[in-house]
Amino acid sequence: MDKYLEMSINELISIFRGSLIALIPWLDKAKIKWEDGVAYDDWDNIVESLYQNIVCASLVGEVLAEYNIAKYNYYYKDFTSIEFIEVKTSVESREQYVFIGFQSISTYFDSVKVAIINDNYELIRYSNIDYKDTSFSYVKRLGSKKFTINSLKIRL
């Protein structure tokens, strides 16, 4: 009998964020820069690997070499042909937000970098939202249609 773990996209992003925070003392000991503006390729490789293996693999249901999900901390001009993590905010807004990555403002990864997109999934501009004001969902493509997914069933 197959066993499954049910998890919200919020929980999945929280696990990913927590893994990044847990790495900070070890990266500091290894002299690997992780802060915005000073991080280099080694940090990018670490965080992208975690994102693909924690977030993308869970969303798709398998480990792949390449996903059709917006990459972590990558700045796209439009999201018309790619799946993405949507960000909702507790602050009333009519704007549509796409998850880009985390940023540290006051504490570790306390801010979410977002792309603000129009109804055609094209970039309007980038912004930041306080992490504590956010929730997340997965916008998945099936053919020309997009569906919003708020939780997953992951096979164990």
Keywords:
156 residues; alpha+beta; 26% helix; two-stranded antiparallel sheet; globular; six-stranded antiparallel beta sheet
How does this model look, in words?
This protein has 156 residues and is α+β, with helices and mostly antiparallel strands. It has one domain. It has a 6-stranded antiparallel β-sheet, with helices on one face. The longest helix has 21 residues.
Brief digest:
This protein is an alpha+beta fold and 156 residues long. It has helices at residues 9-29, 41-60, and strands spanning 4-8, 84-89, 96-103, 111-117, 123-130, 134-142, 145-149, 151-155.
Helical segment count: 2
Low-confidence stretches: none
Give the fraction of residues assigned to helices.
Answer: 25-40%
Give a short account of the largest sheet.
6 strands, antiparallel
- β-strand number: 8
Mean pLDDT: 91
Query: How many domain units?
Result: 1
Order of helices and strands: EHHEEEEEEE
Distance between the termini: 11 Å
Shape: globular
Backbone structural class:
alpha+beta
What is the strand arrangement across the widest sheet?
5-4-3-2-6-7
